[in-house]
Amino acid sequence: MGFVAIIDGQKIPVGVTTDSEGRTVVTVEDREYVVDSRWTQMDLLSLLIDGQSYQVDIHSEKDCHRVLIEGEHFDFELFDERKTLLKSAAGLGAEGVQEIKTSMPGKIVKILVSEGDEVQQGDGLVIVEAMKMENEMKSPKAGVVKRVGIKEGEAVESGAVLVVVE
Q1: Which domain holds residue 78?
Q2: pLDDT tens-digit profile of 110-125?
Q3: 109 in the same domain as 77
Q4: Is the CA virtual torsion 58, 60, 64, 66 positive or negative?
Q5: Do the beta carbons of residue 165 and residue 145 sit within 8 Å?
Q6: Please, which of 35, 47, 136, 161 could form a disulfide with 54 given CB 3.0 to 4.6 Å?
Q7: How far is the first Cα of the chain from the last one, in angstroms, to the nearest whole number?
Q8: Alpha-carbon distance 6 to 4, whole Å?
Q9: Is residue 89, in this structure, part of any structural domain at all?
């Protein structure tokens, strides 16, 4: 199974598989580790990594984890590949200039913002009708609407840029 760990803003691919001998193999970037793990208490994990033993204190809240291992604290987020793709598609955690695009052909029902408007993450920007359903396109970040590239009633193709938020 594939995961993405986010540590200090850096995305690190992590894979977890079982080898032909039934051992758990964890791949972090390009390095592989044979791992055996057992929960010894609710937040205490005993790990055997490539023959070396570690006691890991883990406190988790949703996808955020705080780990204490050998006296050092590490904070990271961990998402499976599916959740990472959904997060990316939704623009969560977006930075920089964001182009809000349609994922399928549709019709612009209502434009909820104007150029120069300040928006918060999650604010509605445009309502698009596609496949007889209305979908509200939301801002992936707090910022300022730099461009509205469509008009109400207009038909749009898949991938069309609707709004730009900076």
Answers
A1: 2-83
A2: 999 999 999 998 899 9
A3: no
A4: negative
A5: yes
A6: 47
A7: 35
A8: 7
A9: no
Taking all residues of the chain, what is their mean pLDDT, rounded to a whole number? 85
72 and 103 share one domain: no
Question: What gap in Å lies between CA 50 and CA 26, rounded to an integer?
Answer: 10
Distances from the Cα of 113 to the Cα of 19, 145, 155, angstroms: 53, 8, 18
What does the pLDDT look like over 21-36, one tens digit per residue? 888 999 998 899 999 9
Residue pointed to by tokens 């434009």? 111
Cα Rg of the chain (Å, integer): 22
Inter-residue contact 69 to 54 (CB < 8 Å): yes
Q: Which residue among 41, 57, 83 closes a domain?
A: 83
Task: Tell whether 41 and 99 lie within a shared domain.
Answer: no
> How many residues are there in the chain?
166
pLDDT at 160: 87
